[in-house]
Design brief:
17 helices; four-stranded antiparallel sheet; alpha+beta
Length: 584
């Protein structure tokens, strides 16, 4: 049994070159990928590269004077964080300041305008029936006929068939006078006065029996008449203060890019009824990019009820408006009852479709916000701190190398080479992880990399001390290396596991920049294991065959005399004293 074991040991010792070749190939491949991708430097966080700082102030909602509270503010911060991360913007900081302010810091190099729209958009979504609509304001002169067409369509994805009526012929009355517009609103409200699945009959104001118009309807008539959707200020205030259960007015662009104004019935389905949303490219038609939505069980029932009701109406009252933050983004017509899923199609670009899906996916903010300030953050202060941190790291590294040279002498060459390999792998991976997962190097991450120098050096010291222990016991270098490795390996793995576990827990329970420290610490801990197993140990095995180390040269760091090695103890049988038979 001893002979095969010896053969396996010799085989294992004779192949250290394979591990060295493997890690060198990996380094070359990663470095080549870094240069091929064009990202030769790590992506920097806002404290090192600068960026944009946005201050958002919460607004009180009508009828909800106590809406601005800690719970709603924390919820808003969480949703904004997920929206920005959904864009791939890592290292963006979202945090509260005071009672009603949220500060959003977006690193340089990202689309700050897109991120601003994501964090500041409330994303309150409602599906409302269209009562009446017409081209608004200056766009009327460009209208070739009294009716316009919308390219939006509703799809029942549970059957994977589009509704037969793919275009909505919105009835646009050319009535330029306030009287005809008011009459259109009154007639529409009369037609919509019957109860529906999502709202009560009392939620829609109707004319009184005497023929006079009640105040709510009169107010809606006046708002619709005065609304000019070609005016940005009018669009911003259209429908302000309207509750989901009340009719309202709104603006939206049709398929021709013209602004239309709408009178919309009570909300039948809300954004909270959406289970998930995504942006897809429609290859079956010319619609291009669209947003698909899957409803919850309750939302699917509500959607089936409202579409079944609308399918029995005449245009434009067979349409439902998809209203996002008070603006109509789509107004598809309905020809049959739909359930399960829906889609929003129109003239979306890929970015617009993905942004809308991202907002719907992560839900609406519990509060409305306005931008109080937008400032540009310079990297001057962060640059000074980085410079100081790099100097501290260089001093620490120099002290570690000095200690290794003085105490371990020739063995320090192996340690320094291993540190260089670890540094190259760390740099290359940081550069590649920037575009891959959005990793950004900030000051805490730099601190994590500096701490990793000590972790890596500690692994070498454990291995070297185990080898020295074996030499002190009287073994030559080559067997000492192989006997020391299993014991050192076990200690290194336990130590690195504890470090990695601490980094993982820190990454999970913290937010913001501290996660950068935890991520870097975890990454360098994993790299320490890779370097020790695939570089340090194989290199030590190869150098143990060289005369300089194997003979115990005084400058090798493995001199048996300097280490106080003693010859192995040998058992000797003591000679027994002669026995005097007479005395016996």
């Amino acid at each position: 049994m001893a002979a095969p074991k010896k053969g396996r040991s010799a085989s294992a010792q004779s192949r250290p070159g394979r591990a060295l070749v493997l890690i060198l190939i990996a380094i070359a491949a990663l470095t080549g990928g870094m240069f091929a991708s064009g990202h030769t430097t790590p992506r920097l966080g806002i404290d090192l590269a600068g960026g944009t700082s946005i201050t958002l102030t919460a607004k009180n909602e009508p009828g909800q004077p106590n809406a601005i509270n800690k719970t709603n503010m924390d919820t808003a911060v969480d949703i904004m964080n997920r929206r920005v991360n959904g864009l791939g913007v890592s290292e963006a900081e979202v945090q509260t300041q005071g009672r009603d302010n949220i500060i959003v810091n977006i690193p340089k190099g990202t689309n700050s305008k897109q991120a601003r729209e994501q964090v500041g958009t409330t994303a309150k979504l409602y599906f409302r029936p269209v009562l009446t609509t017409e081209v608004s304001g200056a766009d009327k002169s460009a209208t070739p006929s009294p009716s316009t067409s919308s390219s939006s369509k509703a799809t029942d994805k549970s059957t994977d068939k589009a509704s037969p009526s793919s275009s909505s012929s919105s009835s646009v009355t050319p009535s330029p006078t306030a009287t005809s517009q008011g009459r259109a609103v009154t007639d529409a409200l009369k037609a919509d006065s019957s109860p529906s699945a999502g709202s009560s009959a009392s939620s829609s104001p109707t004319p009184t029996p005497s023929g006079s118009v009640d105040p709510a309807t009169a107010k809606l008539q006046a708002a619709y008449t005065a609304l000019d959707c070609s005016n940005k200020a009018d669009r911003a205030t259209a429908g302000d203060g309207a509750k989901p259960a009340d009719p309202t007015v709104a603006c939206g662009q049709n398929g021709s890019g013209q602004w239309q104004k709408y009178v919309l019935g009570p909300a039948e389905v809300a954004g909270t009824d959406i289970k998930k949303a995504g942006a897809v490219f429609d290859t079956q038609s010319a619609a291009g990019w669209k947003v698909t939505m899957d409803f919850t069980s309750g939302g699917s029932k509500k959607f089936a009820a409202i579409t079944g009701k609308l399918a029995q109406q005449q245009p434009p009252q067979n349409q439902f408006a998809i209203v996002l933050d008070g603006e109509v983004v789509s107004d598809p017509s309905v020809a049959q009852s739909l359930s399960g899923s829906a889609e929003i199609s129109g003239s979306f670009t890929q970015t617009e479709a993905q942004d809308l899906a991202n907002m719907l996916k992560y839900g609406a903010l519990p509060l409305s916000f306005k931008e109080s300030s937008v400032t540009t953050v310079t990297a001057a202060l962060g640059g000074e701190q980085l410079h100081a941190g790099l100097i501290a790291g260089a001093i620490g590294l120099a002290l570690v190398i000095l200690y290794l040279v003085i105490y371990y002498r020739g063995l320090s060459a192996i340690a320094i080479a291993s540190l260089l390999v670890s540094a190259v792998l760390t740099y290359v991976l940081m550069a590649l992880l920037g575009p891959a997962i959005g990793f950004a190097l900030n000051l805490p991450a730099v601190c994590g990399a500096i701490v990793a120098i000590g972790i890596t050096a500690d692994s070498f010291i454990v291995f070297f001390e185990r080898i020295r222990d074996e030499i002190r016991e009287g073994r030559t270098l080559r067997p000492a290396v192989e006997r020391a490795w299993p014991r050192a390996r076990r200690t290194i793995l336990v130590s690195d596991f504890v470090s990695f576990l601490a980094a993982a827990v820190l990454f999970i329970v913290t937010v913001g920049k501290v996660q950068g420290f935890a991520f870097t610490l975890g990454l360098t801990t994993v790299l320490d294991v890779v370097v020790v197993f695939f570089f340090t140990k194989p290199l030590m095995t190869l150098l143990a065959r060289k005369k300089f180390f194997a003979s115990g040269h005084p400058w090798s760091g493995l001199d048996p005399k300097r280490l106080g090695a003693k010859p192995p103890l040998r058992r000797t049988r003591r000679a027994s004293a002669p026995v005097d038979t007479k005395e016996a």
